[in-house]
Design the sequence.
């Protein structure tokens, strides 16, 4: 059994062949954190808790001055009884008091894993679950800490349920998903930060006394911060060292933080961001927090990444797409913007088919009076002046060319200049007596309302039920403001941000289950809501609105810490690039895009004969090696910067592909041998271009010479067949 309870030691040991996670029961009522890291064959409390009389400390047991909640390593915080570190929960009763006394009362261990009510989570497969039940006997409240151990992966998930067994209501002011007190502070904190068009920049800094945190209060997980943090040894690299990583499966406001406290431990906490949250928990109601995915690596960041990549592909994305190859697509946006006509689209589609493109995606501008971004969101009726045969007629013609057909939507938004807003102005997020702030000339529909959810499900059904649409690009192009719902009472207004996310999940769950063959791509002006919660319904994401190849080396490199390349939409766009104005070679644009889900976003009818021939070659290469590029193991070999080169490797049992990008050309380039690290030492690898053979050990340790590259943004590509 991978989860055992040692009654004598009062210890729970969660263990597989890669990690151990140990929880203790102290004083018969407190849940303490004892160990998390590499697998222990057994545990007998060698790292016993320090028992010392801490001056200036409160003592829940008066006669035991060596015990204080403000000093011991906990698995859950307390409230109002002496633990003054960052909390994982906060509850207010009807008298306005913020004190609880949760005590451990029981536990349950069982095979498998229960789904979370209304929330996405990892699917169970060879998993075991521990539920620790804590009760406040005074207020008749329950808090259940839930841990699931995956037997074949170094992964544990953690969530919390709150249950109110009292007749009176209570208010959850903070409902965190994970807390643990780590008995070290000589570590670095790693996060992924950025902005729109500059997502997923890796940030690493040493822990210091006090609180370090990232968060979003924007209504979505945001491009500014990924809901992720890792603690790593100071010497940890891509290839070696310990990593303790945490990723929240949630698409709304979140917090991820670490507090280095007075006695040298580090408290880790993740969950819903509390400043924008409150939940009225009425009698006999249950509140479920999102899930946190916890993983451990003792072989550096690459091993951490492979764990996330594998667990998300196997246990998170919709099952029909877990092992399904993704098509090469052409997206119409940067070629046409809003200026659409069926004749132009069909000319582009015909040439796309000749080049080998497999999916034609009609982006924004096909509905209502949508000639710019000032109107029509919410009016999902075809503009017959642009498309005289409608979506079905266009889709039929695309299908006859041998391609699939895709369609862009932005369902969560509404334009003030729309028939929907004129009919239902109350459907937009709003607060009485305050103007509704626009972003991109649009407002946000209130997805906390059931009638709004049902309307969007109906609109999507209208197009998907025809079986003409094979792919949906789901966009979301602004953050939330005036977060209010005039139908809810005053004491539930702070529930709306979370209710919005639950409403979104209900829509996605309903539609994706009804149309399991349709490929959904998540988009929020690129990476504005690229998180595991969305990936549970949409197996890929438009990685960034910035399609510049050089920028994408940094963005895709950062996202690869958590997501496999098959989840990242990556397009070859025109030059000068529409976001940064940069010129990069078409070859390099192709290789960067092939390092994700390959697509094109340019007017192919305006390309030169030579460029069209190169595009056709790129597509042929990608299809030939698609199994490697989409399902192979991905390794980072050299990190990019604003000026210098980066390198990554794809590998499976048949072949390996190395991509090296030089960035800006440099004078007096130093000698460099790039070592591959991850090939099979005892195998032979044949260079597909030269025919020369090398042992894996030679390529791993002696490496290959990186020749001098004089031009900016050049690419070196090495492909080997494993013999």
Sequence:
């Amino acid at each position: 059994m991978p989860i055992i309870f040692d009654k004598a030691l009062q210890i729970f040991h969660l263990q597989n062949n890669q990690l151990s996670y140990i929880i203790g029961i102290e004083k018969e009522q407190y849940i303490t954190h004892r160990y998390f890291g590499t697998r222990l064959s057994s545990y007998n409390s060698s790292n016993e808790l320090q028992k010392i009389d801490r001056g200036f400390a409160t003592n829940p047991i008066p006669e035991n001055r060596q015990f204080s909640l403000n000093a011991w390593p906990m698995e859950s915080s307390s409230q109002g009884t002496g633990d003054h570190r960052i909390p994982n929960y906060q509850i207010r009763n009807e008298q306005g008091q913020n004190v609880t006394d949760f005590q451990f009362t029981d536990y349950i261990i069982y095979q498998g894993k229960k789904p979370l009510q209304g929330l996405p989570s990892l699917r169970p497969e060879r998993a075991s679950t521990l539920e620790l039940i804590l009760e406040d006997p005074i207020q008749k409240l329950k808090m259940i800490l839930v841990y699931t151990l995956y037997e074949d992966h170094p992964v544990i998930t953690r969530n919390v349920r709150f249950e109110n067994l009292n007749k009176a209501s209570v208010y959850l002011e903070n409902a965190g998903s994970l807390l643990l007190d780590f008995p070290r502070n000589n570590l670095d904190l790693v996060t992924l930060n950025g902005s729109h068009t500059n997502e997923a920049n890796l940030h690493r800094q040493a822990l210091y006394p006090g609180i370090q945190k990232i968060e979003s209060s924007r209504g979505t997980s945001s491009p500014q911060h990924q809901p992720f943090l890792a603690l790593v040894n100071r010497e940890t690299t891509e290839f070696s060292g310990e990593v303790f990583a945490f990723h929240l499966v949630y698409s709304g406001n979140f917090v991820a933080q670490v507090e280095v406290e007075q006695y040298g431990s580090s408290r880790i906490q993740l969950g819903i961001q509390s400043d924008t949250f409150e939940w009225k928990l009425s009698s006999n109601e249950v509140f479920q927090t999102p899930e946190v995915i916890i993983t451990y690596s003792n072989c550096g960041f690459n091993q951490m990444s492979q764990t996330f990549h594998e667990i998300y592909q196997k246990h998170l994305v919709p099952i029909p797409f877990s092992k399904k190859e993704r098509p090469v697509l052409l997206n119409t946006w940067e070629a046409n913007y809003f200026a659409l006509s069926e004749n132009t689209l069909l000319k582009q589609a015909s040439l796309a088919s000749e080049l080998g493109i497999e999916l034609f995606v009609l982006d924004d501008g096909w509905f209502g009076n949508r000639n710019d971004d000032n109107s029509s969101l919410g009016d999902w009726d075809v503009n017959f002046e642009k498309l005289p045969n409608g979506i079905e007629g266009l889709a039929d013609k695309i299908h006859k060319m041998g391609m699939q057909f895709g369609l862009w939507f932005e369902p969560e938004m509404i334009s003030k200049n729309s028939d929907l807003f004129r009919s239902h102005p109350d459907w937009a997020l709003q607060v009485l007596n305050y103007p509704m702030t626009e972003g991109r000339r649009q407002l946000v529909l209130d997805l906390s309302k059931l009638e709004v959810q049902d309307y969007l499900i109906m609109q999507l059904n209208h197009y998907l039920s025809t079986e003409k649409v094979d792919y949906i690009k789901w966009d979301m192009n602004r953050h939330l403001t005036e977060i209010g719902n005039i139908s809810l009472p005053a004491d539930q207004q702070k529930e709306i941000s979370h209710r919005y996310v639950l409403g979104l999940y209900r829509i996605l769950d309903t539609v994706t289950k009804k149309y399991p063959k349709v490929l959904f791509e998540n988009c929020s002006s690129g990476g504005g809501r690229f998180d595991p919660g969305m990936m549970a319904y949409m197996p890929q994401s438009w990685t960034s609105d910035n399609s510049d190849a050089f920028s994408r080396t940094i963005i895709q490199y950062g996202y690869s810490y958590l997501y496999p390349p098959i989840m990242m939409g990556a397009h070859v766009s025109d030059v000068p690039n529409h976001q940064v104005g940069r010129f990069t070679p078409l070859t390099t644009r192709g290789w960067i895009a092939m390092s994700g889900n390959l697509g094109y976003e340019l007017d192919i009818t305006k390309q030169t004969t030579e460029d069209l021939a190169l595009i056709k070659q790129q597509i042929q290469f990608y299809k030939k090696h698609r199994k490697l590029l989409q399902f192979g193991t991905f390794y980072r070999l050299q990190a990019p910067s604003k000026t210098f080169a980066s390198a990554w490797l794809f590998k499976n049992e048949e072949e390996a592909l190395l991509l090296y990008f030089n960035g800006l050309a440099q004078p007096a380039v130093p000698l460099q041998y790039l070592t591959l690290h991850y090939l099979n030492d005892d195998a032979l690898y044949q260079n597909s271009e030269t025919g020369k053979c090398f042992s894996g050990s030679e390529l791993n340790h002696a490496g290959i010479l990186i020749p001098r590259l004089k031009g900016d943004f050049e690419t070196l590509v090495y492909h080997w067949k494993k013999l």
About this structure: The mean pLDDT is 96. The chain is about 20% helix and 30% strand. The longest strand covers residues 170-182.
